[in-house]
Amino acid sequence: MADLFHVVGRQRACREFRPDPVEDDLVERCLEAATHAPSAENRQPWVFVVVRDPELRAMVGDLTRRAWRGGGRQHSEPRLASGLLTDVDRGAEGGVAAAPVLVVVCGDTRLGLEVTLPASIFPAVQNLLLAATALGLGSALTTLPVTFGAELRTALTLPSTVQPLAVVPLGWPARRLGPPRRSPVSEKAHRDRYGAGW
Ligand SMILES: Cc1cc2nc3c(=O)[nH]c(=O)nc-3n(C[C@H](O)[C@H](O)[C@H](O)COP(=O)(O)O)c2cc1C
């Protein structure tokens, strides 16, 4: 099993997948890792809907495309480096939905205050992403499709207390991704007081 720091250093968004299936036991291992995340009061408000049905995946893909074309792209275009824009574009136009598995990550509002719900869900999403990376699977944290949460809720028969917060595709990467580009710690960390430098 890969070293944690190696996995953390390789984890990145994958938006192009091979059509090969992903076995259920691998998905379950990712979910197992996700369910070991911390959460407020240890209430574990996460709910995972594992979508394999081609029609439902196409529906999620459609919501993603609509969110992207209906404002997402316009918002992101001036902010994203051209390579990333091209990548997100491809993902939103069908790349992400082509993954054989889409994990719709939701929060149960009965198990957490609505304002703190995302803070209790996203550590689980991060564990899911890291586990996928450790297993050699491609994955990505996406939020574009949850723009249309009501439609997602209807299609997946989510009760009104279960709020969709993210969609994570899981599949075998179509190509090898290079290392993630991140600013060094020295640009982000301070000793004792802000501005003191590292
Ligand atoms: C809150 C959040 C929302 C995101 N939503 C999307 C999304 O809807 N679609 C997408 O393709 N990527 C999405 N991403 C992935 C980011 O684009 C990605 O993490 C970032 O560009 C770093 O890229 P890398 O993983 O390739 O290093 C999201 C990431 C975060 C943290």
Percent of residues in helices comes to 40-55%
Q: Give the distance, in angstroms, between the N- and C-terminal Cα atoms.
A: 33 Å
Class computed from helices, strands and strand pairing: alpha+beta
Largest sheet: 4 strands, antiparallel
Low-confidence stretches: none
Helix and strand sequence: HHEHHEHEHEH
The overall strand count is: 4
Task: Chart the SSEs and their pairings.
Blueprint: H1 4-10, H2 24-34, E1 46-51, H3 54-76, H4 82-95, E2 101-108, H5 117-134, E3 138-139, H6 149-155, E4 162-171, H7 185-188
This protein binds flavin mononucleotide.
Write up this protein.
The structure is a single chain. By secondary structure, this protein is an alpha+beta fold. It has one domain: 3-Layer(aba) Sandwich (NADH Oxidase), CATH 3.40.109. It is 42% helix and 13% strand. The chain is built from seven helices and four strands, in the order ααβααβαβαβα. Strands 1-2-4-3 form a four-stranded antiparallel beta sheet. Helix 3 packs antiparallel against helix 4. The chain is globular, with a radius of gyration of 17 Å. The mean pLDDT is 96. It binds flavin mononucleotide. The site of flavin mononucleotide has 12 residues, from helix 4.
